[in-house]
């Protein structure tokens, strides 16, 4: 039978304590962020349309809001023929696609591609 001396026992207890604290923090953090996502109606709606939380927060940084299945400018009227609006959106790395929806371009698009945060990079969820 093997017995630990006091220093070995202390080291073992500290190691196990740190491991359990890290695991508990990960679980608690995940539950916290899930609760935040569920309480934010706009984020929940964007997730239902297939957008990731990373994409959502990036759009929020660029002063956009998600309404009725599309992203709209937050502080400017969404007049797609207004050259001032188009110029302001280009400064924010946003352009209109062929369906007249605002999408990212430039460095922001590359950042989201690298993070795999675009809707077409997400795995398909199968219905059970």
Question: What distinguishing features does this structure have?
Answer:
mainly alpha; two-stranded antiparallel sheet; two-stranded antiparallel ribbon; 4 strands; 11% strand
Give the amount of beta strand, in percent: 5-15%
Q: Helices and strands: which structural class?
A: mainly alpha
Helix content: 40-55%
Reported for the largest beta sheet, the result is: 2 strands, antiparallel
Broad shape? elongated
Q: Terminal Cα separation, in Å? A: 52 Å
Average of pLDDT? 85
- Give the H and E element order: HHHEEHEEH
Quaternary state of this entry equals single chain
Rg, alpha carbons: 23 Å
Number of helices: 5
Low-confidence stretches: none
Give the helices and strands, then pairings:
Layout: H1 6-39, H2 41-48, H3 53-61, E1 64-67, E2 70-73, H4 83-91, E3 94-96, E4 102-104, H5 106-114
Antiparallel strand pairs: 1-2, 3-4
């Amino acid at each position: 039978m093997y017995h630990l001396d006091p220093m070995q026992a202390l080291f073992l207890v500290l190691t196990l304590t740190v491991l359990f604290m890290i695991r508990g923090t990960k679980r608690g953090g995940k539950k916290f962020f899930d609760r935040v996502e569920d309480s934010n109606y706009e984020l929940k709606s964007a997730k239902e349309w297939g957008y990731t939380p990373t994409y959502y927060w990036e759009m929020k940084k660029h002063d956009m809001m998600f309404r009725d299945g599309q992203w709209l400018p937050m502080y400017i009227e969404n007049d797609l023929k207004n050259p001032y609006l188009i110029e302001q959106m280009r400064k924010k790395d946003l352009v209109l696609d062929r369906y007249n929806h605002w999408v990212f371009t430039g460095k922001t698009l590359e950042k989201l591609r690298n993070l795999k945060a675009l809707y077409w990079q997400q795995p398909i969820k199968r219905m059970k």
